[in-house]
Please model this.
Amino acid sequence: MAYQVNAYVHAVEAPPISEAMTWISPSPQNRALINLCQAVPSYPPAPALQDHVARMAQQPETSLYTDISGLPELRSALAGHMAQAYGGSVDARDVIVAAGCNQAFCVAMMALAKPGDNVIVPSPYYFNHQMWLTMQGIEVRSIPAIGMDGPSLDPAAAADVMDDRTRAIVLVSPNNPTGAVLPSETLESFFDLARTRRIALVIDETYKDFRDGRDPPHRLFQKADWRDVFVQLYSFSKVYALTGYRVGSIIAGPHLIGEIEKIMDCVAICAPRIGQLAALFGLEALGEWKEEKRRLMASRLTALRAAMTLPGLTYGLVSAGAYFAYVRHPFEHTPGKEVARRLAREHNLLCLPGSMFGPGQERYLRLAFANVDSDLMPDMASRLLESQSAR
Ligand SMILES: Cc1ncc(COP(=O)(O)O)c(C=O)c1O
Model:
């Protein structure tokens, strides 16, 4: 008999995106797949960034490790960027660079909680958050994040499920999977709750650059004591189309950064240097390119909203923003996974069922629309409509 595997890891479902990929089948009508499955930018990195990376690859030191917490120039540039964007105080010492925001989450949570502790995670959640916590033996306590008519998130609901083993509240804004952008006031009330309970407020801001408007996403970095409460996670994957370069970051107080360094030293030693150089170039030189891509995503969102008003369509748009739309499907008695599978097999539309994002999400589908050009949105809506009559 083979050896045993870690029961906590074994208990976690297989990676959802890989499962969804198996649903794709050739179209009987020979039409192209509309892929709304994974949040990947549909365009390459900026040409100037690609040239820079090619030049950097020629430098002998590019092949070397960096400091555990990342290149000093990148930590400093990111601190400056966040200080400016949020009107707050962030220092290079508050920053640790990770190999992507998923790793940032894993190492931050490992530093915050141990097996038997619990963490508050609104549902629907970003599935990798739930997967990692469960693998660590950390209990996920979910609170509802979708009300009757769209996203709503109540700090009182979080307070109700806390106990003395609660170590953190985890939020994602702009949200994956709903696209909802949490108002600054909501984030502040969660900050106040976390401060009172002396736990961490962890916010994954992977999609912050795709928000509308120029106001800072929140004012938490303006608070004198933010380092005692707030942990910000960020990704360079989406903003500079660098998903394969693996760069993300954690911004936190020194007591947490010190613990995370120990973990990073063991799991990665450092984030890939070439990725860090690419991220630094992005921060220093790609302001305009980034704004152009933000506008492109906003135009896709507008096109999606318009497409979802197709007469007769009984799929309802519940929430949308940044990279994602969350849609209520019309099949009351069919599990969400079955609806998504049929959309893939019979209508060549690939998306993820809400059930992959937590309890109580059977009626929903996530459309990762950032992958799809605006002119395909009407076709997407027609395929949804077609799925109604095919049943
Ligand atoms: C909310 C959220 N956090 C983190 C990630 C992963 O980011 P990275 O590529 O930097 O690991 C994603 C990717 O889809 C995401 O949606």
User: Anything to note?
Assistant: The mean pLDDT is 95. The first helix runs from residue 7 to 10. The pocket of pyridoxal-5'-phosphate is lined by residues 39, 100-102, 126, 172, 176, 204, 206, 235, 237, 243, 248 (CB under 6 Å).
